[in-house]
């Protein structure tokens, strides 16, 4: 397993609780839209066994052409040891990346794509939308729906409705409005539904989509292939 050590080159305050850590691109490090990586803090591999409390599974919120690896995360006042250390890191500090992989690349199957997310989960979808805006072939249209009770909606410069590009975006601040809109979107029986959020959020969305007649093969999750049955089996969603 290759570990890429790299430095923070910029810290962007997206909102009161959300930061994006921009990292230098190490030589040989590659990724595509929808990628996640293992993001580790200094000392995680100092002992014989990795210190898992210093490692997190994070989405990459940028594309390679932007020149930096973006890691966007919410850091609340009361937070884990990992987030507490991360909050105090500054430009120039080193972090490690390894095991980078994409479970949710943009499918170009001439269908409508619906991006369903909660809060900072939108970071996973930012590169998909950028990729689509650069090259929209074999995608009918994209609709993004994000729920964030903080109302500090993220990446509004990218998630901005653009009729010419067949991109529509929607932000809501409560779950009731969100799920009503999901029911409406699920009327598209041929669409592809991408979901990013907490495990509970995934289960709730999958259950609702299933009740509206959406099939498992139309649902994309940021989970390894072997994890998909944990969310998409009949027992979980009924």
Automatic annotation (TrEMBL):
Q: SUPFAM superfamilies per the record?
A: Ferredoxin reductase-like, C-terminal NADP-linked domain (SSF52343), Riboflavin synthase domain-like (SSF63380)
Q: Where is the signal peptide?
A: none
Gene3D superfamilies in the cross-refs: Nucleotide-binding domain of ferredoxin-NADP reductase (FNR) module (3.40.50.80), Translation factors (2.40.30.10)
InterPro entries linked: FNR_nucleotide-bd, Riboflavin_synthase-like_b-brl
**Top-level taxon of the source organism:** Bacteria
Q: What is this protein called?
A: Dihydropteridine reductase
UniProt source species: Shouchella miscanthi
At the highest ranks, the source species' classification is: Bacteria, Bacillati, Bacillota, Bacilli, Bacillales
